[in-house]
Design goal:
Layout lengths: L5 E5 L4 H12 L3 E6 L17 E5 L5 H11 L3 E4 L6 H6 L1 H22 L4 E7 L22 H20 L3 E6 L2 E2 L8 H13 L6 E3 L5 E2 L2 E2 H12 L6 E4 L5 E2 H11 L8 E3 L17 H6 L8 H24 L1
Parallel strand pairs: 1-2, 1-4, 2-3, 4-5, 5-6, 6-11, 7-10, 8-13
Antiparallel strand pairs: 9-12
Helix pairs in contact: 1-7, 2-4, 4-5, 6-8, 6-10, 8-10
This protein binds NADP nicotinamide-adenine-dinucleotide phosphate and ligand G4F.
C-alpha cells in the first residue's frame, strides 16, 4: 500500500526535480528520487537536501528497474520530470529523445499500473507540443503541431498520460508547462546561457556571447512556481490537464538586454548571432493562457520576468566571483 505524503520524483537531479524535492520536504513529505547511474555523481542541485532524500538507481530506458523502484518505494505520488529536455539535442539524437522523453513516460505509467494503479501521476508536458501554433495564447484546447523531435516525443508523453487516465481510471495529470527558469537552469538553455555570460563578461572571464535567433519569443516563468502547480494538480479531486504559464512573452533580445543591464553592461557590445545556433525548425512565439489553472488550482505565478532575470544574474555573479576567488586561492 502506498503511504500518504510519500513521493517519488524522476529527474530529481534536474532543475525542476530539485525545486520540487525542496517544496515537498517543506510540506513534510518523505521524498524519494530516481537517479541514473553515471561514472561521476551529478547531485549539485540537490546537495543541500541530500541528507533528507532517499535516492534510488533506475533508468527511463529500463522497464524492470522502474517497476522495482515503484514496488520498493510504494509512493502515493509520482512526478515524472526525467527526460532528454534540450530541444537542439533532439534534432541530433531523435531516437534517444523518443526513448527517454516519449516511451519513458509509458514505462513509468506501466510500472504504476502494475504495482498500484491508485498512485497519482504527474507528467511534465511542454509548450513545445504546440509548435507553430495557429492560435495565441495557447490553451488546453489548442491543437499540437510540434516542430522538433523533442516536441513530438512530449506529445506522445502527453497523450499516453491522457490514455492511461481514460483507459484504466488512473489519477494521471499532464502539466503543459511553458518555459521556466531559475539559477539552477542548465547552462545550455538560452536564459542561463545569457545570465552566466553576463556575469563572466562583467568579471573579465569572457569576451562575447554568441547566440542563435534573437527574435524568438517565449513565455518565461520561475521554476519554483511551476513545481507548485504540479503538486496542486495531484491534490485535486479529479485528474486533469492544465496549461502552466505566465501569459507574457519576451524576445531573446529583450532577455539579453535585461540581463546585461543588471550586470551594468550594454548587451550590444558583447552579443552576436551566429547561424550555427539556429535550429532546423524554429518556434517563433509561444504564449500560454493559464486561466484554467488560475481558476481551478488557484495557482498564480509569484515571480515576474524582470525579477527572475535579476535573480539569475545576481546568482551567477556571486557564483562566478566565488569560482574566480577559488582559482586565485
Ligand atoms: P533538466 O534540468 O534537463 O532535468 C532532466 C532530468 O532528467 C535530469 O535529472 C536527468 O538526469 C534526468 N534524466 C534524463 N534522462 C534520464 C534517464 N534515461 N533516466 C533517468 N533520468 C533521466 O530538465 P528540467 O528543466 O528540470 O525539466 C524537467 C521536466 O520538465 C523535463 O521532462 C522537461 O522536458 C519538462 N519541461 C521543462 C520545461 C522548462 O522550461 N524547464 C518546460 C516544459 C517541460 P541527469 O542529471 O542524470 O542528466
Ligand atoms: O532556452 P531554450 O533552449 O528553450 P526551448 O527550446 O524553448 O525549450 C525549453 O522550453 C520548453 C518549453 O517550451 C521545454 F519543454 C524544454 O525542455 C526546454 O526547457 O530556447 C529558447 C529560445 C529558442 O527559440 C531558441 O532558438 O531561445 C532561442 N535561442 C537563441 N539563441 C537559443 C539561443 N537557445 C539556446 N538554447 N541557445 C542559444 O544560443
Amino acid at each position: 500500500m502506498s503511504t500518504p505524503r510519500r513521493a517519488l520524483i524522476t529527474g530529481i537531479t534536474g532543475q525542476d526535480g530539485a525545486y520540487l524535492a525542496e517544496f515537498l520536504l517543506e510540506k513534510q513529505y518523505e521524498v524519494h528520487g530516481m537517479v541514473r547511474r553515471a561514472s561521476t555523481e551529478n547531485f549539485e542541485r540537490i546537495a543541500h537536501l541530500h541528507d533528507r532524500l532517499t535516492l534510488h538507481q533506475a533508468d527511463l530506458l529500463d522497464q524492470l528497474s522502474i517497476i522495482n523502484l515503484v514496488q520498493d518505494v510504494q509512493p502515493r505520488e509520482v512526478y515524472n520530470f526525467a527526460a532528454q529536455s534540450f530541444v537542439p539535442t533532439s534534432f541530433v539524437q531523435p531516437l534517444l529523445t523518443g526513448e527517454f522523453t516519449a516511451l519513458g513516460v509509458a514505462r513509468v505509467l506501466e510500472a504504476i499500473r502494475l504495482v498500484d494503479p491508485a498512485i497519482r501521476f504527474f507528467q511534465a508536458s511542454s509548450s513545445e507540443m504546440f509548435g507553430q501554433a495557429r492560435q495565441t495564447p495557447q490553451t488546453e484546447e489548442t491543437p499540437f503541431r510540434p516542430r522538433s523531435p523533442y516536441g513530438a516525443a512530449k506529445a506522445y508523453g502527453h497523450w499516453i498520460t491522457v490514455n492511461y487516465r481514460e483507459s484504466y481510471g488512473m489519477f494521471a495529470c499532464s502539466g503543459i508547462m511553458f518555459n521556466h527558469e531559475s539559477p539552477l537552469r542548465g547552462k545550455e538553455f538560452v536564459s542561463r546561457k545569457i545570465t552566466d555570460a553576463a556575469a563572466r563578461i562583467k568579471l573579465g572571464l569572457q569576451d562575447e556571447l554568441v547566440l542563435g535567433n534573437l527574435d524568438a519569443r517565449r513565455d518565461w516563468g520561475f521554476a519554483g512556481d511551476f513545481v507548485r502547480a504540479a503538486w496542486l494538480m495531484l491534490q485535486q479531486e479529479r485528474p486533469d490537464d492544465y496549461v502552466i504559464a505566465s501569459g507574457k512573452t519576451h524576445s531573446v533580445r529583450e532577455l539579453a538586454e535585461l540581463a546585461f543591464g543588471y550586470a551594468e553592461l550594454d548587451w550590444r557590445e558583447y552579443v552576436r548571432s551566429d547561424p550555427k545556433f539556429l535550429r532546423p525548425a524554429e518556434i517563433n512565439n509561444l504564449c500560454g493562457d493559464a486561466s484554467k489553472a488560475r481558476r481551478l488550482l488557484s495557482w498564480e505565478p509569484t515571480v515576474s520576468f524582470p525579477d527572475l532575470i535579476r535573480q539569475m544574474v545576481e546568482a551567477d555573479l556571486k557564483r562566478v566571483r566565488q569560482e574566480r576567488e577559488g582559482i586565485k586561492g
